[in-house]
Specification:
Blueprint: E1 9-18, E2 21-31, E3 36-40, H1 47-54, E4 62-67, E5 70-72, H2 76-82, E6 83-85, H3 100-115, H4 118-121, H5 125-143, H6 163-175, E7 181-184, H7 193-208, E8 212-217, E9 225-228, H8 246-249, E10 253-254
Parallel strand pairs: 3-8, 3-9, 6-7, 7-8
Antiparallel strand pairs: 1-2, 1-4, 4-5, 9-10
Helix pairs in contact: 3-5, 5-6
C-alpha cells in the first residue's frame, strides 16, 4: 500500500529558548498525515516560532518533535527538504514590485535548478518549458488562483493583489515543490469573514488531498486540530511571536470535530 503523502507530526515537551527567554516550551500534540493543524493565539504568543521550528527553519532547544518520521532538532535539513512555507513575514514574503508571472517563473526556475535531476536538466528546452508550465498550472489550480480574474492577469503586480489573492499566490509557489508539509503564517490576518472562510476552505481541501497543513491564525476553525498559544507569564515578549509557557502548554491541544 502506498504511504500517505503528508507528513505526520508529533511533539513532546517541545520548546525553544532564545536570548530574551522562552519562545515556546512544553508543546505536545500528535497529528496524522493529511491533518489540518491550526496554531491559534494572539500576536506575540510564539505561533510563528513554533511554525518555523516544525518546518526545520529554527532549532528547538528542549524536548523533541517528529515530522514525517524525521526527529527534530537533529534532522533540520531533512525536514526542510519536504516542507514548504507559504506566506511568513520576514521569511518568505512576496516581492510587491514583481508581477504574478515573475514570481511563478522565478519559482519554476529555482525548482528546476535545485530540485531537478540531472536527467531532467538535460531534456530539450521546449520539454522543460512545458513541464514547468504544467507544474505552474497545477499549483495555481490547487491554490484556487485564476489568473484571468486578476486586474492584469498574470502581469498583475503583487502590490495590486487583494489579501486573499496574495495568500493563494504564496500557497501556489509553495505547492510547486509538492511538499508533504505546508506551513502558512497569519492565515486569517486582515481577511473579511467571507475571505477567511475561503482561506480555510483552501487549506482544508489541501489537507483532504493528503498534504499536512500547519496554519497560524488568531481564530481556528472547529474542524482543525488546534494548538493554542499565549505569551508566557513574566516574559519580555519580543515584537515578533514568542510563545507558550509550560504552565499553559500541557492543555493547548484540541482535536476538532471533523
Amino acid at each position: 500500500m502506498e504511504s500517505p503523502h503528508g507528513a505526520a507530526l508529533s511533539t513532546e515537551d517541545f520548546g525553544l529558548k532564545g536570548p530574551r527567554g522562552w519562545a515556546f516550551r512544553g508543546v505536545e500534540f500528535t497529528a496524522p498525515p493529511g491533518s489540518l493543524v491550526a496554531v491559534e493565539g494572539p500576536s506575540g504568543s510564539g505561533r510563528t516560532c513554533l511554525l518555523l521550528a516544525l518546518t526545520g527553519r529554527m532549532r528547538s532547544t528542549r524536548g523533541h518533535a517528529e515530522v514525517g518520521g524525521e526527529r527534530l532538532p537533529g534532522r533540520l535539513a531533512a525536514v526542510r527538504g519536504f516542507s514548504a512555507l507559504g506566506p511568513v513575514p520576514g521569511v518568505s514574503e512576496l516581492d510587491p514590485s514583481l508581477t504574478v508571472a515573475e514570481h511563478l517563473r522565478e519559482r519554476a526556475l529555482l525548482r528546476r535548478r535545485f530540485d531537478g535531476s540531472l536527467r531532467s536538466l538535460l531534456r530539450p528546452r521546449a520539454e522543460r518549458a512545458a513541464t514547468a508550465r504544467d507544474t505552474i498550472d497545477a499549483a495555481l489550480s490547487d491554490a484556487g488562483l485564476d489568473l484571468a480574474t486578476l486586474p492584469k492577469a498574470e502581469r498583475t503586480s503583487v502590490r495590486d493583489l487583494e489579501r486573499l489573492e496574495a495568500l493563494r499566490l504564496s500557497v501556489s509557489l509553495a505547492l510547486m515543490g509538492r511538499p508533504r508539509l505546508l506551513a502558512v503564517d497569519d492565515t486569517d490576518l486582515k481577511l473579511s469573514a467571507t475571505d477567511r472562510a475561503l482561506a480555510w476552505e483552501l487549506l482544508r481541501t489541501l489537507s483532504a488531498g493528503g498534504t499536512t497543513v500547519l496554519a497560524v491564525c488568531s481564530e481556528a476553525p472547529e474542524d482543525a486540530l488546534t494548538v493554542r498559544t499565549r505569551p508566557a507569564p513574566g516574559t519580555d515578549a519580543p515584537d515578533d511571536d514568542t510563545t507558550t509557557g509550560k504552565d499553559t502548554a500541557d492543555a493547548i491541544t484540541e482535536t476538532g470535530s471533523a
